[in-house]
Amino acid sequence: xxNASLIDFTLYLADSTLILGQRxxxxxxHGPVLEQDIAITNVTLDLIGQSRSFYQYAxxxxxxxxxxxxxxxxxxxxxxxxxxxxERPNGDWAQTILRQTFFSFYQRELFTQLLHGADxxxxxxxxxxxKEVRYHCRWSSEWVCRLGDGTQESHERMLxxxxxxxxxVGELFVAAPYETALQIDTATLKSNWxxxxxxxxxxxxxxxxxxxxxxxxxGGKNGQHTEALGYLLAELQYVQRSYPGCEW
Amino acid sequence: xxxxxxxxxxxxxIDQEIKIEPRDWMPDAYRKTNLRQISQxxxxxxxxxxxxxxxxxRAPSLKRKSILLAKVQDEAGHGLYLxxxxxxxxxxxxxxxxxxxxxxxxxxxxxxxxxxxxxDMGAIGWLVDGAxxxxxxxxxxxxxxxxxxxxVRICKEESFHQRQGFEVLLVLSKGSDAQKAMCQDAINxxxxxxxxxxxxxxxxxxxxxxxxxxxxxxxxxxxLRQQFVDMIAEQVKLLxxxxxxxxxxxxxxxxxxxxxxxxxxxxxxxxxxxxxxxxERLAARKKAWEEGRWVREAASAYAAKQKQKQQAA
Lengths: 248, 313
Ligand SMILES: [Fe+2]
Ligand SMILES: [Fe+2]
Ligand SMILES: [Fe+2]
Known about the structure:
Number of helices of chain B: 13
Shape of chain A: globular
Number of domains of chain A: 1
Number of strands of chain A: 0
Strand content of chain A: under 5%
CATH superfamily of chain A: Ferritin, core subunit, four-helix bundle
Distance between the termini of chain B: 51 Å
Oligomer: heterodimer
Strand order of the largest sheet of chain B: 1-2
Number of strands of chain B: 2
Structural class of chain B: mainly alpha
Shape of chain B: globular
Largest sheet of chain A: none
Structural class of chain A: mainly alpha
Largest sheet of chain B: 2 strands, antiparallel
Bound molecules: fe (ii) ion
Protein backbone atom coordinates (compact mmCIF):
# COMPACT_ATOMS: atom_id res chain seq x y z
CA UNK A 1 0.00 0.00 0.00
CA UNK A 2 1.50 3.32 -1.08
CA ASN A 3 0.88 6.58 0.65
CA ALA A 4 -0.68 7.88 -2.58
CA SER A 5 -3.35 5.18 -2.54
CA LEU A 6 -4.18 5.90 1.07
CA ILE A 7 -4.50 9.61 0.33
CA ASP A 8 -6.69 8.97 -2.70
CA PHE A 9 -8.93 6.59 -0.81
CA THR A 10 -9.24 9.02 2.10
CA LEU A 11 -10.13 11.78 -0.35
CA TYR A 12 -12.73 9.51 -1.95
CA LEU A 13 -14.38 9.10 1.46
CA ALA A 14 -14.04 12.81 2.26
CA ASP A 15 -15.39 14.01 -1.09
CA SER A 16 -18.33 11.59 -1.09
CA THR A 17 -19.50 12.64 2.35
CA LEU A 18 -18.97 16.34 1.66
CA ILE A 19 -20.81 16.31 -1.65
CA LEU A 20 -23.78 14.38 -0.28
CA GLY A 21 -23.80 16.68 2.74
CA GLN A 22 -23.77 19.69 0.46
CA ARG A 23 -26.77 18.32 -1.44
CA UNK A 24 -28.72 17.46 1.71
CA UNK A 25 -27.96 20.87 3.17
CA UNK A 26 -30.28 22.43 0.62
CA UNK A 27 -33.23 20.88 2.46
CA UNK A 28 -32.52 22.84 5.63
CA UNK A 29 -35.48 25.19 6.04
CA HIS A 30 -37.41 23.57 3.18
CA GLY A 31 -38.32 20.11 4.47
CA PRO A 32 -41.78 18.57 4.08
CA VAL A 33 -42.47 18.78 7.81
CA LEU A 34 -40.56 20.42 10.64
CA GLU A 35 -39.45 17.20 12.38
CA GLN A 36 -37.99 15.88 9.12
CA ASP A 37 -36.30 19.18 8.36
CA ILE A 38 -34.47 18.66 11.64
CA ALA A 39 -33.81 14.98 10.94
CA ILE A 40 -32.23 15.48 7.53
CA THR A 41 -30.13 18.31 8.89
CA ASN A 42 -28.86 15.89 11.54
CA VAL A 43 -27.79 13.55 8.78
CA THR A 44 -26.20 16.46 6.94
CA LEU A 45 -24.27 17.54 10.01
CA ASP A 46 -22.98 14.00 10.48
CA LEU A 47 -21.88 13.79 6.85
CA ILE A 48 -20.05 17.11 6.98
CA GLY A 49 -18.46 16.03 10.26
CA GLN A 50 -17.29 12.77 8.68
CA SER A 51 -15.92 14.62 5.67
CA ARG A 52 -13.93 16.87 7.98
CA SER A 53 -12.37 13.89 9.75
CA PHE A 54 -11.35 12.40 6.41
CA TYR A 55 -10.06 15.70 5.00
CA GLN A 56 -8.07 16.37 8.14
CA TYR A 57 -6.48 12.96 7.87
CA ALA A 58 -5.75 13.41 4.15
CA UNK A 59 -4.23 16.82 4.89
CA UNK A 60 -2.03 15.26 7.52
CA UNK A 61 -0.87 12.56 5.08
CA UNK A 62 -0.16 15.16 2.40
CA UNK A 63 1.74 17.35 4.85
CA UNK A 64 3.30 20.71 3.91
CA UNK A 65 0.71 22.57 5.96
CA UNK A 66 -2.19 21.26 3.88
CA UNK A 67 -5.60 21.86 5.52
CA UNK A 68 -9.11 20.43 5.29
CA UNK A 69 -10.32 23.63 3.64
CA UNK A 70 -7.58 23.57 1.00
CA UNK A 71 -8.76 20.12 0.02
CA UNK A 72 -12.45 20.97 0.04
CA UNK A 73 -12.29 24.44 -1.47
CA UNK A 74 -9.31 24.48 -3.80
CA UNK A 75 -9.61 21.27 -5.80
CA UNK A 76 -11.48 21.23 -9.13
CA UNK A 77 -14.14 19.12 -10.82
CA UNK A 78 -11.63 16.64 -12.22
CA UNK A 79 -9.90 16.21 -8.88
CA UNK A 80 -12.97 15.36 -6.81
CA UNK A 81 -13.32 11.62 -6.32
CA UNK A 82 -16.81 11.38 -4.85
CA UNK A 83 -19.15 8.64 -6.02
CA UNK A 84 -21.50 9.91 -8.74
CA UNK A 85 -24.48 8.92 -6.60
CA UNK A 86 -23.60 11.64 -4.09
CA GLU A 87 -23.76 14.47 -6.61
CA ARG A 88 -27.16 13.53 -8.08
CA PRO A 89 -29.64 16.40 -7.64
CA ASN A 90 -32.03 16.37 -4.69
CA GLY A 91 -35.18 16.03 -6.78
CA ASP A 92 -38.17 15.34 -4.54
CA TRP A 93 -38.16 13.80 -1.05
CA ALA A 94 -38.28 10.31 -2.61
CA GLN A 95 -35.08 10.88 -4.59
CA THR A 96 -33.28 12.40 -1.63
CA ILE A 97 -34.36 9.61 0.70
CA LEU A 98 -33.43 6.85 -1.71
CA ARG A 99 -30.04 8.41 -2.45
CA GLN A 100 -29.41 8.53 1.30
CA THR A 101 -30.50 4.93 1.79
CA PHE A 102 -28.25 3.67 -0.99
CA PHE A 103 -25.29 5.59 0.32
CA SER A 104 -25.80 4.93 4.03
CA PHE A 105 -26.11 1.17 3.51
CA TYR A 106 -22.96 1.30 1.40
CA GLN A 107 -21.17 3.28 4.10
CA ARG A 108 -22.28 0.79 6.72
CA GLU A 109 -20.69 -2.10 4.82
CA LEU A 110 -17.57 -0.18 3.85
CA PHE A 111 -16.92 1.22 7.31
CA THR A 112 -17.44 -2.20 8.84
CA GLN A 113 -14.63 -3.44 6.60
CA LEU A 114 -12.46 -0.48 7.57
CA LEU A 115 -12.83 -1.37 11.25
CA HIS A 116 -10.57 -4.32 10.60
CA GLY A 117 -8.36 -2.59 8.03
CA ALA A 118 -4.65 -1.94 8.31
CA ASP A 119 -4.90 1.81 8.76
CA UNK A 120 -5.68 2.65 12.36
CA UNK A 121 -6.77 6.23 11.73
CA UNK A 122 -9.31 5.15 9.13
CA UNK A 123 -10.51 2.42 11.52
CA UNK A 124 -11.01 4.99 14.23
CA UNK A 125 -12.97 7.37 11.97
CA UNK A 126 -15.00 4.43 10.68
CA UNK A 127 -15.82 3.31 14.19
CA UNK A 128 -16.99 6.75 15.23
CA UNK A 129 -18.95 7.24 12.02
CA UNK A 130 -20.66 3.85 12.13
CA LYS A 131 -22.79 4.94 15.07
CA GLU A 132 -24.12 7.77 12.92
CA VAL A 133 -24.40 5.69 9.78
CA ARG A 134 -26.53 3.04 11.49
CA TYR A 135 -28.97 5.74 12.48
CA HIS A 136 -28.96 7.13 8.91
CA CYS A 137 -29.73 3.64 7.58
CA ARG A 138 -32.67 3.30 9.90
CA TRP A 139 -34.04 6.78 9.33
CA SER A 140 -33.76 6.71 5.55
CA SER A 141 -34.95 3.14 5.04
CA GLU A 142 -38.00 3.81 7.20
CA TRP A 143 -38.82 6.59 4.79
CA VAL A 144 -38.36 4.28 1.81
CA CYS A 145 -40.98 2.04 3.42
CA ARG A 146 -43.35 4.90 4.18
CA LEU A 147 -43.16 6.20 0.64
CA GLY A 148 -43.10 2.81 -1.07
CA ASP A 149 -46.05 1.53 0.93
CA GLY A 150 -47.80 4.87 1.52
CA THR A 151 -50.10 6.28 -1.16
CA GLN A 152 -50.33 5.57 -4.87
CA GLU A 153 -48.53 8.84 -5.56
CA SER A 154 -45.70 8.17 -3.14
CA HIS A 155 -45.29 4.65 -4.53
CA GLU A 156 -44.98 6.01 -8.05
CA ARG A 157 -42.50 8.64 -6.93
CA MET A 158 -40.40 5.93 -5.30
CA LEU A 159 -40.42 3.91 -8.51
CA UNK A 160 -39.27 6.99 -10.41
CA UNK A 161 -36.51 7.55 -7.85
CA UNK A 162 -35.30 3.97 -8.25
CA UNK A 163 -35.24 4.34 -12.02
CA UNK A 164 -33.31 7.60 -11.68
CA UNK A 165 -30.73 6.56 -9.15
CA UNK A 166 -30.16 2.89 -9.82
CA UNK A 167 -27.69 3.50 -12.68
CA UNK A 168 -25.42 5.25 -10.18
CA VAL A 169 -25.12 2.50 -7.57
CA GLY A 170 -23.02 0.09 -9.64
CA GLU A 171 -19.99 2.37 -9.39
CA LEU A 172 -19.85 1.86 -5.63
CA PHE A 173 -18.79 -1.74 -6.20
CA VAL A 174 -16.27 -1.23 -9.00
CA ALA A 175 -12.92 -0.97 -7.24
CA ALA A 176 -10.83 2.06 -8.08
CA PRO A 177 -7.05 1.40 -8.17
CA TYR A 178 -6.68 2.93 -4.70
CA GLU A 179 -9.35 0.58 -3.34
CA THR A 180 -7.61 -2.42 -4.82
CA ALA A 181 -4.39 -1.20 -3.22
CA LEU A 182 -6.14 -0.99 0.13
CA GLN A 183 -7.65 -4.44 -0.35
CA ILE A 184 -11.23 -3.27 -0.15
CA ASP A 185 -13.35 -6.32 -0.82
CA THR A 186 -15.95 -4.85 -3.17
CA ALA A 187 -17.49 -8.24 -3.93
CA THR A 188 -18.50 -8.72 -0.30
CA LEU A 189 -19.63 -5.12 -0.08
CA LYS A 190 -21.83 -5.68 -3.08
CA SER A 191 -23.52 -8.86 -1.92
CA ASN A 192 -24.13 -7.55 1.63
CA TRP A 193 -25.46 -4.29 0.26
CA UNK A 194 -27.77 -6.06 -2.22
CA UNK A 195 -29.18 -8.27 0.53
CA UNK A 196 -29.91 -5.30 2.77
CA UNK A 197 -31.43 -3.17 0.01
CA UNK A 198 -33.53 -6.08 -1.25
CA UNK A 199 -34.94 -6.50 2.24
CA UNK A 200 -35.83 -2.80 2.43
CA UNK A 201 -37.44 -2.89 -1.01
CA UNK A 202 -39.48 -5.94 -0.09
CA UNK A 203 -40.84 -4.25 3.00
CA UNK A 204 -41.48 -1.11 0.97
CA UNK A 205 -43.48 -3.14 -1.60
CA UNK A 206 -41.06 -2.10 -4.33
CA UNK A 207 -39.96 -4.56 -7.04
CA UNK A 208 -36.63 -6.20 -6.15
CA UNK A 209 -33.72 -4.53 -7.93
CA UNK A 210 -30.98 -6.25 -9.83
CA UNK A 211 -27.47 -4.99 -10.32
CA UNK A 212 -27.06 -6.71 -13.65
CA UNK A 213 -30.13 -5.53 -15.50
CA UNK A 214 -29.17 -1.89 -15.94
CA UNK A 215 -26.30 -0.02 -17.48
CA UNK A 216 -24.17 1.52 -14.73
CA UNK A 217 -22.33 4.83 -14.91
CA UNK A 218 -18.81 5.02 -13.55
CA GLY A 219 -16.06 7.61 -13.34
CA GLY A 220 -16.66 9.57 -10.14
CA LYS A 221 -14.09 7.68 -8.12
CA ASN A 222 -11.46 8.65 -10.69
CA GLY A 223 -12.50 12.27 -11.12
CA GLN A 224 -14.85 12.04 -14.09
CA HIS A 225 -18.22 13.40 -13.03
CA THR A 226 -21.66 14.38 -14.26
CA GLU A 227 -22.35 17.97 -15.30
CA ALA A 228 -24.02 18.53 -11.93
CA LEU A 229 -20.77 18.61 -9.96
CA GLY A 230 -19.33 21.77 -11.52
CA TYR A 231 -22.30 23.87 -10.43
CA LEU A 232 -22.24 22.37 -6.97
CA LEU A 233 -18.55 23.15 -6.50
CA ALA A 234 -18.94 26.67 -7.90
CA GLU A 235 -21.42 27.42 -5.14
CA LEU A 236 -19.56 25.57 -2.42
CA GLN A 237 -16.17 27.13 -3.15
CA TYR A 238 -16.85 30.66 -4.35
CA VAL A 239 -16.25 32.66 -1.15
CA GLN A 240 -12.89 31.01 -0.43
CA ARG A 241 -11.78 31.58 -3.99
CA SER A 242 -13.02 35.17 -4.18
CA TYR A 243 -10.85 36.09 -1.20
CA PRO A 244 -7.74 33.92 -1.42
CA GLY A 245 -5.60 33.49 1.64
CA CYS A 246 -8.16 34.68 4.19
CA GLU A 247 -9.21 33.29 7.54
CA TRP A 248 -12.92 32.74 8.11
CA UNK B 1 -68.62 30.62 40.23
CA UNK B 2 -69.07 34.19 39.20
CA UNK B 3 -67.18 35.29 36.14
CA UNK B 4 -65.49 38.19 37.88
CA UNK B 5 -64.43 35.81 40.62
CA UNK B 6 -62.61 33.66 38.10
CA UNK B 7 -61.02 36.74 36.71
CA UNK B 8 -60.00 37.80 40.22
CA UNK B 9 -58.45 34.40 40.95
CA UNK B 10 -56.64 34.59 37.63
CA UNK B 11 -55.25 38.07 38.29
CA UNK B 12 -54.26 37.07 41.84
CA UNK B 13 -52.21 34.21 40.47
CA ILE B 14 -50.51 36.57 38.06
CA ASP B 15 -49.79 39.03 40.81
CA GLN B 16 -48.36 36.30 43.01
CA GLU B 17 -46.15 35.10 40.16
CA ILE B 18 -47.93 31.77 39.87
CA LYS B 19 -47.76 30.47 36.29
CA ILE B 20 -50.95 30.03 34.31
CA GLU B 21 -51.21 26.48 32.98
CA PRO B 22 -53.20 25.12 30.00
CA ARG B 23 -56.07 23.73 32.13
CA ASP B 24 -56.47 26.86 34.23
CA TRP B 25 -59.28 29.26 33.59
CA MET B 26 -58.07 32.29 31.68
CA PRO B 27 -59.76 35.30 30.08
CA ASP B 28 -60.43 34.87 26.42
CA ALA B 29 -58.26 37.84 25.55
CA TYR B 30 -55.36 36.35 27.52
CA ARG B 31 -55.65 33.12 25.56
CA LYS B 32 -55.86 34.98 22.27
CA THR B 33 -52.97 37.30 23.04
CA ASN B 34 -50.74 34.41 24.01
CA LEU B 35 -51.78 32.34 21.04
CA ARG B 36 -51.09 35.24 18.70
CA GLN B 37 -47.76 35.99 20.26
CA ILE B 38 -46.49 32.41 20.61
CA SER B 39 -47.53 31.38 17.12
CA GLN B 40 -45.99 34.55 15.71
CA UNK B 41 -42.84 33.72 17.58
CA UNK B 42 -42.90 30.15 16.21
CA UNK B 43 -43.38 31.43 12.67
CA UNK B 44 -40.46 33.81 13.17
CA UNK B 45 -38.17 30.93 14.09
CA UNK B 46 -39.21 29.03 10.96
CA UNK B 47 -39.16 31.92 8.49
CA UNK B 48 -35.94 32.98 10.18
CA UNK B 49 -34.29 29.81 8.91
CA UNK B 50 -34.50 31.13 5.35
CA UNK B 51 -32.16 34.14 5.29
CA UNK B 52 -29.38 32.22 7.02
CA UNK B 53 -30.21 28.99 5.20
CA UNK B 54 -29.22 30.90 2.07
CA UNK B 55 -25.59 30.70 3.09
CA UNK B 56 -25.28 27.06 4.11
CA UNK B 57 -24.21 26.03 0.61
CA ARG B 58 -21.74 28.93 0.39
CA ALA B 59 -20.19 28.97 3.86
CA PRO B 60 -16.49 29.81 3.46
CA SER B 61 -15.07 26.92 5.48
CA LEU B 62 -16.19 23.46 6.57
CA LYS B 63 -16.19 24.55 10.18
CA ARG B 64 -18.44 27.53 9.40
CA LYS B 65 -20.71 25.32 7.33
CA SER B 66 -21.19 22.97 10.30
CA ILE B 67 -21.80 25.80 12.74
CA LEU B 68 -24.31 27.46 10.44
CA LEU B 69 -26.18 24.22 9.77
CA ALA B 70 -26.43 23.56 13.49
CA LYS B 71 -27.60 27.10 14.12
CA VAL B 72 -30.34 27.02 11.52
CA GLN B 73 -31.38 23.61 12.81
CA ASP B 74 -31.61 25.04 16.33
CA GLU B 75 -34.09 27.58 15.00
CA ALA B 76 -36.22 24.73 13.64
CA GLY B 77 -36.12 23.22 17.12
CA HIS B 78 -37.25 26.53 18.61
CA GLY B 79 -40.13 26.58 16.17
CA LEU B 80 -41.08 23.10 17.29
CA TYR B 81 -41.10 23.97 21.02
CA LEU B 82 -43.12 27.09 20.34
CA UNK B 83 -45.71 25.41 18.14
CA UNK B 84 -46.11 22.85 20.91
CA UNK B 85 -46.56 25.63 23.48
CA UNK B 86 -49.11 27.36 21.27
CA UNK B 87 -51.01 24.10 20.74
CA UNK B 88 -51.70 23.95 24.49
CA UNK B 89 -53.97 26.95 23.90
CA UNK B 90 -56.17 24.96 21.56
CA UNK B 91 -54.97 25.52 18.01
CA UNK B 92 -53.33 22.89 15.80
CA UNK B 93 -49.96 23.43 14.18
CA UNK B 94 -51.56 22.94 10.74
CA UNK B 95 -54.00 25.75 11.45
CA UNK B 96 -51.21 28.04 12.58
CA UNK B 97 -49.21 27.26 9.44
CA UNK B 98 -52.23 27.97 7.26
CA UNK B 99 -52.65 31.30 9.02
CA UNK B 100 -49.04 32.13 8.25
CA UNK B 101 -49.45 31.23 4.60
CA UNK B 102 -52.67 33.17 4.19
CA UNK B 103 -51.10 36.25 5.77
CA UNK B 104 -53.44 36.23 8.79
CA UNK B 105 -50.51 35.48 11.09
CA UNK B 106 -47.35 37.55 11.15
CA UNK B 107 -43.70 36.82 11.75
CA UNK B 108 -40.85 39.10 12.71
CA UNK B 109 -40.16 41.66 9.98
CA UNK B 110 -36.41 41.31 10.39
CA UNK B 111 -36.47 38.19 8.24
CA UNK B 112 -37.74 40.20 5.30
CA UNK B 113 -34.28 41.69 4.87
CA UNK B 114 -31.83 40.00 2.48
CA UNK B 115 -28.58 38.25 3.39
CA UNK B 116 -26.17 39.63 0.83
CA UNK B 117 -22.71 38.58 2.00
CA UNK B 118 -21.12 36.06 4.32
CA UNK B 119 -20.70 38.80 6.92
CA ASP B 120 -24.48 38.85 7.27
CA MET B 121 -24.21 35.50 9.06
CA GLY B 122 -22.18 37.26 11.71
CA ALA B 123 -24.36 40.36 11.86
CA ILE B 124 -27.54 38.30 12.18
CA GLY B 125 -26.16 36.20 15.01
CA TRP B 126 -24.82 39.19 16.86
CA LEU B 127 -27.58 41.74 16.25
CA VAL B 128 -30.71 39.77 15.37
CA ASP B 129 -30.28 36.89 17.79
CA GLY B 130 -28.93 39.50 20.20
CA ALA B 131 -32.09 41.59 19.98
CA UNK B 132 -34.24 38.48 20.18
CA UNK B 133 -32.49 37.47 23.40
CA UNK B 134 -33.44 40.75 25.13
CA UNK B 135 -37.04 39.92 24.50
CA UNK B 136 -36.71 36.22 25.23
CA UNK B 137 -34.89 36.57 28.53
CA UNK B 138 -37.83 38.68 29.65
CA UNK B 139 -40.19 35.99 28.36
CA UNK B 140 -38.60 33.25 30.49
CA UNK B 141 -40.62 34.96 33.26
CA UNK B 142 -43.81 35.39 31.24
CA UNK B 143 -47.00 34.35 33.02
CA UNK B 144 -48.08 31.52 30.71
CA UNK B 145 -46.23 28.39 31.91
CA UNK B 146 -45.63 26.50 28.63
CA UNK B 147 -44.36 29.68 26.94
CA UNK B 148 -42.02 30.52 29.81
CA UNK B 149 -40.59 27.01 29.87
CA UNK B 150 -40.06 26.94 26.10
CA UNK B 151 -38.18 30.23 26.46
CA VAL B 152 -35.80 28.85 29.08
CA ARG B 153 -34.65 26.15 26.67
CA ILE B 154 -34.47 28.55 23.75
CA CYS B 155 -32.52 31.26 25.55
CA LYS B 156 -29.56 29.02 26.22
CA GLU B 157 -29.18 28.34 22.51
CA GLU B 158 -29.82 31.92 21.48
CA SER B 159 -27.00 33.28 23.58
CA PHE B 160 -24.74 30.71 21.97
CA HIS B 161 -25.89 31.95 18.55
CA GLN B 162 -25.09 35.49 19.51
CA ARG B 163 -21.57 34.62 20.57
CA GLN B 164 -21.00 32.63 17.39
CA GLY B 165 -22.25 35.55 15.29
CA PHE B 166 -19.97 37.93 17.09
CA GLU B 167 -17.08 35.56 16.53
CA VAL B 168 -17.76 35.47 12.76
CA LEU B 169 -17.48 39.26 12.74
CA LEU B 170 -14.44 39.26 15.00
CA VAL B 171 -12.53 37.08 12.53
CA LEU B 172 -13.58 39.36 9.65
CA SER B 173 -12.61 42.45 11.63
CA LYS B 174 -9.08 41.12 11.95
CA GLY B 175 -8.88 40.00 8.35
CA SER B 176 -8.09 41.60 5.00
CA ASP B 177 -9.35 45.06 4.02
CA ALA B 178 -12.06 43.42 1.94
CA GLN B 179 -13.18 41.38 4.94
CA LYS B 180 -13.24 44.45 7.17
CA ALA B 181 -15.32 46.30 4.62
CA MET B 182 -17.70 43.34 4.37
CA CYS B 183 -18.02 43.34 8.16
CA GLN B 184 -18.80 47.06 8.41
CA ASP B 185 -21.26 46.88 5.52
CA ALA B 186 -23.21 44.08 7.20
CA ILE B 187 -23.37 46.01 10.49
CA ASN B 188 -24.57 49.08 8.60
CA UNK B 189 -27.37 47.17 6.93
CA UNK B 190 -28.57 45.19 9.98
CA UNK B 191 -28.32 47.81 12.71
CA UNK B 192 -31.52 49.76 12.10
CA UNK B 193 -33.69 46.76 11.25
CA UNK B 194 -32.43 45.14 14.48
CA UNK B 195 -33.59 48.18 16.47
CA UNK B 196 -36.98 47.90 14.81
CA UNK B 197 -37.34 44.36 16.16
CA UNK B 198 -38.44 45.80 19.51
CA UNK B 199 -41.58 47.13 17.88
CA UNK B 200 -43.23 50.56 17.86
CA UNK B 201 -42.46 53.25 20.44
CA UNK B 202 -44.22 52.71 23.76
CA UNK B 203 -46.95 55.25 23.13
CA UNK B 204 -47.89 53.61 19.83
CA UNK B 205 -47.82 49.95 20.79
CA UNK B 206 -51.42 48.74 20.79
CA UNK B 207 -51.33 45.57 22.88
CA UNK B 208 -48.93 46.70 25.54
CA UNK B 209 -51.08 47.71 28.53
CA UNK B 210 -52.91 44.43 29.03
CA UNK B 211 -49.74 42.47 28.22
CA UNK B 212 -48.01 44.23 31.10
CA UNK B 213 -50.91 43.76 33.49
CA UNK B 214 -51.03 40.04 32.66
CA UNK B 215 -47.26 39.82 32.82
CA UNK B 216 -47.03 38.41 29.33
CA UNK B 217 -44.58 41.25 28.82
CA UNK B 218 -42.54 42.69 31.66
CA UNK B 219 -40.61 45.43 29.95
CA UNK B 220 -41.74 47.98 27.41
CA UNK B 221 -40.47 48.07 23.83
CA UNK B 222 -38.44 51.20 24.49
CA UNK B 223 -36.87 49.81 27.66
CA LEU B 224 -35.72 46.69 25.85
CA ARG B 225 -34.48 48.71 22.88
CA GLN B 226 -32.43 50.96 25.14
CA GLN B 227 -30.93 47.97 26.91
CA PHE B 228 -29.93 46.55 23.52
CA VAL B 229 -28.35 49.79 22.30
CA ASP B 230 -26.35 50.05 25.52
CA MET B 231 -25.02 46.53 25.10
CA ILE B 232 -24.18 46.72 21.38
CA ALA B 233 -22.63 50.19 21.56
CA GLU B 234 -20.02 48.69 23.88
CA GLN B 235 -19.50 45.42 22.00
CA VAL B 236 -18.98 47.14 18.65
CA LYS B 237 -15.82 48.70 20.06
CA LEU B 238 -14.27 45.23 20.38
CA LEU B 239 -14.73 44.83 16.63
CA UNK B 240 -13.17 48.20 15.83
CA UNK B 241 -16.28 48.87 13.80
CA UNK B 242 -18.94 51.57 14.09
CA UNK B 243 -22.71 51.69 14.27
CA UNK B 244 -24.31 53.75 11.48
CA UNK B 245 -25.77 56.43 13.75
CA UNK B 246 -24.17 59.88 14.11
CA UNK B 247 -26.31 60.63 17.14
CA UNK B 248 -25.11 57.63 19.09
CA UNK B 249 -23.31 58.88 22.19
CA UNK B 250 -23.03 58.08 25.88
CA UNK B 251 -25.29 60.24 28.03
CA UNK B 252 -23.68 60.44 31.43
CA UNK B 253 -26.67 61.93 33.21
CA UNK B 254 -29.03 59.19 31.97
CA UNK B 255 -26.37 56.47 32.19
CA UNK B 256 -27.56 55.30 28.79
CA UNK B 257 -26.60 55.80 25.18
CA UNK B 258 -28.58 58.37 23.21
CA UNK B 259 -29.34 57.27 19.69
CA UNK B 260 -30.89 58.60 16.50
CA UNK B 261 -34.38 58.31 15.06
CA UNK B 262 -35.65 55.06 13.67
CA UNK B 263 -37.17 55.24 10.21
CA UNK B 264 -40.72 54.29 11.21
CA UNK B 265 -41.96 54.66 7.69
CA UNK B 266 -39.66 51.82 6.65
CA UNK B 267 -40.80 49.82 9.67
CA UNK B 268 -44.48 50.06 8.71
CA UNK B 269 -43.76 49.41 5.04
CA UNK B 270 -42.04 46.12 5.88
CA UNK B 271 -44.85 45.17 8.28
CA UNK B 272 -47.35 45.82 5.48
CA UNK B 273 -45.50 43.45 3.17
CA UNK B 274 -43.28 45.83 1.25
CA UNK B 275 -39.92 44.78 2.67
CA UNK B 276 -37.17 43.58 0.35
CA UNK B 277 -37.99 39.87 0.78
CA UNK B 278 -41.55 39.55 2.15
CA UNK B 279 -42.80 37.82 -0.98
CA GLU B 280 -39.81 35.51 -1.33
CA ARG B 281 -39.92 34.38 2.28
CA LEU B 282 -43.60 33.53 2.26
CA ALA B 283 -43.32 31.91 -1.16
CA ALA B 284 -40.49 29.70 0.07
CA ARG B 285 -42.52 28.57 3.08
CA LYS B 286 -45.60 27.85 0.98
CA LYS B 287 -43.57 25.96 -1.59
CA ALA B 288 -42.01 23.72 1.06
CA TRP B 289 -45.42 23.08 2.59
CA GLU B 290 -47.17 22.36 -0.73
CA GLU B 291 -44.39 20.17 -2.06
CA GLY B 292 -44.34 18.30 1.24
CA ARG B 293 -48.04 17.49 1.11
CA TRP B 294 -47.69 14.16 -0.68
CA VAL B 295 -44.94 13.19 1.77
CA ARG B 296 -47.12 13.92 4.79
CA GLU B 297 -50.02 12.07 3.19
CA ALA B 298 -47.82 9.05 2.49
CA ALA B 299 -46.58 9.03 6.08
CA SER B 300 -50.08 9.01 7.52
CA ALA B 301 -51.32 6.42 5.01
CA TYR B 302 -48.39 4.19 5.94
CA ALA B 303 -48.98 4.69 9.67
CA ALA B 304 -52.64 3.75 9.23
CA LYS B 305 -51.69 0.59 7.32
CA GLN B 306 -49.20 -0.40 10.00
CA LYS B 307 -51.80 0.11 12.70
CA GLN B 308 -54.26 -2.04 10.79
CA LYS B 309 -51.67 -4.80 10.40
CA GLN B 310 -50.94 -4.74 14.12
CA GLN B 311 -54.60 -4.97 14.99
CA ALA B 312 -55.10 -7.84 12.55
CA ALA B 313 -52.14 -9.73 14.01
FE1 LIG C 1 -35.92 33.63 18.01
FE1 LIG D 1 -34.40 30.88 17.75
FE1 LIG E 1 -31.04 31.93 17.19
